[in-house]
Amino acid sequence: MTPVRLAYSDRRTPIEGTPLSQPQPEPTQDQVLRERAAGQVSDVMLNLEWTLASAKKGHNVVAKDGVDRNAELALAELAK
Predict the structure, then answer these.
(1) CB atoms within 10 A of CB 32
(2) What is the CA radius of gyration of the chain?
(3) 3-state class (DSSP) for residue 18
């Protein structure tokens, strides 16, 4: 196999007629399903992170107000 020489223009980019990268093959059905599952897990994890951060902030506000002890305890339990 002989090496392919690339020709470059003044801007150091390949000029017409030089080999370019090959297109990626289409993903298999299994790859598509795995990527979809990973996306769902990512969405859930992001929602959980947001929920926990919101519970911590809510707990701080409710504890500072000192009016509703049940709400304070519920938010404290969630924020653990």
Answers:
(1) 11
(2) 28
(3) coil
